[in-house]
Automatic annotation (TrEMBL):
The lineage of its organism: Eukaryota, Fungi, Dikarya, Ascomycota, Pezizomycotina. It comes from the Eukaryota. It is an enzyme of class 2 (transferase). Residues 64-145 form the Methyltransferase domain. Its EC number is 2.1.1.103. GO terms for molecular function: phosphoethanolamine N-methyltransferase activity. It comes from Monilinia fructigena. Pathway: Phospholipid metabolism; phosphatidylcholine biosynthesis; Lipid metabolism. The keyword Hydrolase does not apply. This is phosphoethanolamine N-methyltransferase. Keywords: Methyltransferase, Transferase. Gene3D superfamilies: Vaccinia Virus protein VP39. InterPro entries: Methyltransf_25, SAM-dependent_MTases_sf.
């Protein structure tokens, strides 16, 4: 899900919230990505340690942020089922409502990722299908603010004339998603490497997996990127 500042975008995601999971909730590439990403994070604290922490008045455990959490399936649900704590944000009221129903063990908040100011540091973060509504300037600011380990995804596949001079990204790339054609910013693999490197991240793994949703959507070449924040 996206967290675009566009006023029309939340309404669109509200309108597809009841059918989104049918087409995207069982994406094999996404499920494999979530599984391998969680394996890189430390496990949550034991129940004894957690009980002690609560009695002392502070929170103990691994906390993961799901940026543009959508319905909570499958990403937020997988995090909670792994025993870790989950905080999800999305700009769609309907998506947040579904997340709270689908993942009762998580904490979900209606928020815009561009203005969201975390009240705590996270041990990891997922950004699934949520980073292609922004300008390059907005992306640079957003990625630079994220903490911990970031697991990020976007789609690739553009026409030659859409690329910038450095071939780091392409503007106004048309894509049909759930029956709606929009124009998006798409980073190339080289662009992601530069964006994340300049923001203080080390890329651990990249993998491209093509996916064709069983809906009114174009084929989606997904570039799955696992990156870790290094230094302060």
């Amino acid at each position: 899900m996206s967290s675009s500042p566009n006023d029309e975008a939340p309404k669109f995601y509200d309108s597809i919230s009841d059918r989104y999971d049918k087409y995207y909730g069982h994406d094999p590439g996404l499920l494999a990505f979530i599984k391998s990403s969680l394996e890189l994070l430390p496990a949550d604290a034991s129940s004894i340690e957690a009980a002690l922490a609560i009695s002392l008045g502070y929170v103990l455990g691994v906390i993961v942020l799901d940026i543009g959490c959508g319905t909570g399936i499958p990403t937020s649900l997988s995090v909670v089922q792994s025993g870790r704590k989950l905080h999800g944000i999305d700009f769609s009221p309907s998506m947040i409502s579904l997340s709270r129903t689908n993942v009762p063990g998580g904490i979900f908040e209606l928020a815009n990722m561009l203005s969201y100011a975390p009240s705590e540091e996270y041990d990891g973060a997922f950004a699934i299908f949520s980073l292609f509504h922004f300008t390059r300037e907005e992306m640079e600011g957003l990625v630079g603010r994220l903490k911990g380990t970031v697991f990020s995804e976007d789609m690739v596949g553009t026409r030659e004339e859409m690329y910038d001079e450095e071939r780091l990204s392409a503007q106004n790339v048309p894509h049909r998603f759930m029956g709606r054609v929009g124009e998006y910013l798409m980073y190339t693999r080289k662009g992601w490497e530069k964006l994340l490197g300049d923001s203080g991240y080390e890329i651990l793994k990249t993998e491209r997996v093509d996916f064709l949703p069983l809906a009114e959507c174009d084929e989606e070449p997904h570039l799955w990127i696992t990156a870790r924040r290094v230094g302060n």
